[in-house]
Give the backbone structure.
Amino acid sequence: MSAHQKSYSVVVAGLGKRGIHHADAVAQNPCLRLAGLCDIDAGRLEAARAKYGVDQAGPEAAAVLQAVRPDVFIFCTLPQVRLPLIQAGVNSGARLIAFEKPVAVSTNEAIEMFRLTRAAGVKTVVSHQHRYGDHYRKVAEIIASGAIGRVHTVYGTAIGWMMHMFTHLVDYASWFNNYASPEWVAGQASGKGKFTDAHSSPDYICALVQYVNGVRGIFESGENAPDVPEVDSMWHKCRIGAQGTEGFAEVLTGKEGKGGGWRAVTPKGAHSGPGFMDYAHDMPPYIQDIVNWLDDDAKVHPCNGERAYQGFEVMMGAMRSVVQRGRVALPLGEGEPELDALQRVLP
Ligand SMILES: NC(=O)c1ccc[n+]([C@@H]2O[C@H](COP(=O)([O-])OP(=O)(O)OC[C@H]3O[C@@H](n4cnc5c(N)ncnc54)[C@H](O)[C@@H]3O)[C@@H](O)[C@H]2O)c1
């Protein structure tokens, strides 16, 4: 039993699919106490309040946060709802704010969000939690061991569209490249059908990335991305990996019973193993790493917001590249909101 059992209080806002995943993992963690809940949907709020037995609950995040003044604020709203919740979390004195990908809907919004959290010394965590999958870890371990030689290329593809999938791809590929900073991005996109989706996106986008260590990144997301025939589940058709001077290693995200796993070719031969994306497996260690970072500043969360911001800039830079017709240098400054600008220029 931990010395600080139940010592950190948590408010969770946005109690849809992902909010409930988070609330479940918080409720199971011996060092965390679920102290407040928030959703604008009364039915979802009441169901969650009954499930977790939490007193403080309401439709206004700022009010719940002021009543609880938690150590940790977690919000899992759709991408359109970010900056006001960051502001409410900072105002409440939370020490750590964890939220869902993608970071924001525009660079302007992300700049303001991180200006607020950095100025207040609030730690941030963004939910790129697929990395806790055993097959993802295996690929990272093979690459880090040097078994594929010097990494020169990292890549990630997903059939799922950009605002759902792109930053997942960049985050894990960047992990395989030791999170070297991206220097520039060149992108292309097509199709306007998905701009009206809640995860507003071009139907397809691709990006080439130059990292400061000379490694090239290649990313594709949406309807024209390559199929992953080994996986029989649309959202899980993702292939993310690295090529080196001596071989390659890659993960196929996968779903239980629908394929997935990892494979590598190294000078010792061809290797492979099973694996699939599983929230029940991936959420507890993701939440535990929040506790670890609160306990010890040196135990920085692997999904910390600064890394997520870097990956988010690749996605935003790719859209700007389509609009500006050229290579876009990172980091980005303020500019025309990328989704609007892209929608305007696509035929
Ligand atoms: N990390 C992952 O693996 C993963 C997987 C799926 C979705 N996501 C991301 O999670 C986020 C949420 O997705 P979801 O599928 O859980 O959505 P959802 O629609 O199931 O849930 C969102 C909830 O937020 C509530 N909400 C909206 N505005 C609010 C506000 N101002 N205050 C409080 N609550 C509010 C809604 O009523 C709803 O219950 C998205 O950004 C999505 O991209 C991440």
